[in-house]
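EI: anyone free to look at a 234-residue chain?
SC: sure, send it
EI:
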Amino acid sequence: MSHLLLDNVCVDFPIYNTTGRSLKNQLMQAATGGRMGSNEKGRVVVRALQNICLELKEGDRLGVIGHNGAGKSTLLRVISGVYEPIEGSIHIEGKVSSMIDLSLGMDGEATGIENIFLRGALLGFNRKWLSSKVGDIVDFAGLGDFIRMPLRTYSAGMQMRLAFSISTLVQPEILLMDEWLNIGDVDFQEKVQQRFKEIVQKSSILVVATHSPELVEKVCNRTIRLERGSVIST
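SC: here you go
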């Protein structure tokens, strides 16, 4: 059974090439609403998340809302393991799949086929198993003979179609999404939306960061609002 627990999680980002007493630091501190400070080594830091407490259980569909810079994407990256909290703890039961950086690990000089294995390795897919899925990926992406061409010859939309086709191979238990994606032309968007619906329905826990009240109302059964890295409402 999937379970996600964040207990007083804090995340700081260090700021280099500045000092805690400079005028620049004072101005930046004002601009970031007082989130800027210094750690025990005197290094200037911005607090991206502050004392986040969150528990999600099987069946939870959480919408994370807030303005740009509120900490939504940072929260998703903490859950996915990209960022380590400097305080607090995270406990996760279940396989986590992230729809945040779909093209991470892909190489512009490598062919589409080679990028399937590059991106697949980053996602932890077994190479033998992945080999059996290449045909499905190519068919879904609809790239035709381009699959054997270098990625740099693809349009941005073609690259995203390939990345999406690879990243949605496995059914996650805990699914993380930074907005609901719209990729490619109308026909491909229909395939994307259908696959998203299937993945969301089958996943145990969903966490989606979004600006869309309509999406929250349609998909989510819980919400939290972030402001300056803190939860201000649930």
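EI: The helical segments are 23-31, 72-80, 112-122, 127-131, 134-141, 156-167, 186-202, 213-219.
SC: 👍
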